[in-house]
Amino acid sequence: MVHASQTEQRRSFWRVRFSIQPNQVGFLYKKNRLDGKLESGIYDLFDYYRHLRLVVLPTTNRILNVVNQEVLTKDNIALRFSYFVEYRIVAPEIFVEKFDVFSSPYTIFSEAEQLIHNLTQVHLRRDISKIASEELNEKRNDILPEIPAALQKELRESGIEIVRLFVRDLTFPKAIQDLLAKQLEATIRAKSDLENARTQVAVARALKNASELMKDDENIKFVQFMETINKISEKGKHTFVIGDMSGRPNGV
User: Fold this and answer.
1) Residues 93-142: tens digit of each pLDDT
2) How many Å separate Cα 29 from the centre of its chain?
3) How far apart, in whole angstroms, are the C-alpha atoms of residue 133 and residue 194?
4) At what angle do helices 174-215 and 218-233 cross, to 10 degrees?
5) 163-193 burial code (b ≥16 CB/10 A, e <16)
6) Which one-letter DSSP state was computed for residue 191?
7) Stretch 6-22: mean pLDDT, rounded?
8) Three-class DSSP category at 160
9) Which of 16, 50, 73, 107 has the fewest CB neighbours in a 10 Å radius?
């Protein structure tokens, strides 16, 4: 019994346990050669010579933020932009062949994200350079209306696919910002002046129409006459002699 117990302990010592979480996939290497692909789960494997190594990759989406990239617009205005990339590993078998999988996980994704950074930067710079600075803010959402097929093809060669890619920030130099602010202020002021002018024209047209209406209307003339008398009477005692509105007296 003691001998059996010692044998079991030795076997346990020679075993290695690998744990692969949900939303992960594992690649088992034996003597630095790919031995097989493992799905999520716990694996107890015999490894007497300690030749087994496991590389684990996520199957969920990952986020990459790229900031402070310089570019020239169509009219040669320098600016800085930041953008957002969401990507995933769609072909892990290809991914483990393209990158140094025996490095730390941080190093693996550092290499992959550097590749994503470089390729997306090239496409974004090329598209921004086709737009004039004055139009850039308005066309921010149209810089990359869809992910370029050429970019997806280049990244799929490394087992990667971009899910979303869009520009987050555009920052012009301070001098350009001041000019754009003044231009915006002038545009707003011009719109305000135009609205005021339209209002004045409408008021003048209404007064003219009212004047034309009042000119030949006897009832309106009478109302005006009574309003004039009321105003005069407010200033003191007066005696009024009311005659015919047409000039013929008809009463005292």
Assistant:
1) 999 999 988 877 667 888 999 999 999 999 999 999 999 887 887 777 77
2) 42
3) 27
4) 100
5) eebebeebebeeeeeeeeeeeeeeeeeeeee
6) H
7) 73
8) strand
9) 50
- Rounded CA separation 151/88 (Å): 14
Residues of the chain above pLDDT 90, percent: 40
The token pair at 33 is: 């050669």
CA distance 92 to 59: 8
Identify which has the larger pLDDT, 23 or 12: 23
- CATH number for the segment(s) 62-172: 3.30.479.30
Q: Does the structure show a pLDDT above 50 at 3?
A: no
How many C-beta neighbours within 10 Å does residue 216 have? 8
Yes or no: say if 129 and 72 are a contact pair by the CB < 8 Å rule.
yes
What single string gives the DSSP state of each residue in 29-89? EETTEEEEEE-SEEEEEE-TT--EEEEEEE-S-EEEEEEEEEEE-TT--EEEEEEEEEEEE
Length of the chain: 252
Boundaries of every domain in the chain: 2-58, 62-172, 180-212, 217-252
The residue with greater pLDDT, 5 or 126, is 126
**Residue 35 token pair:** 């031995």
* Residue 182 CA to its chain's centroid (Å): 25
Q: Classify each residue of 87-115 as buried b or exposed e, where b means 16 or more C-beta atoms within 10 Å of its C-beta.
A: bebeebeebbeebebeeeeeebbebbbeb
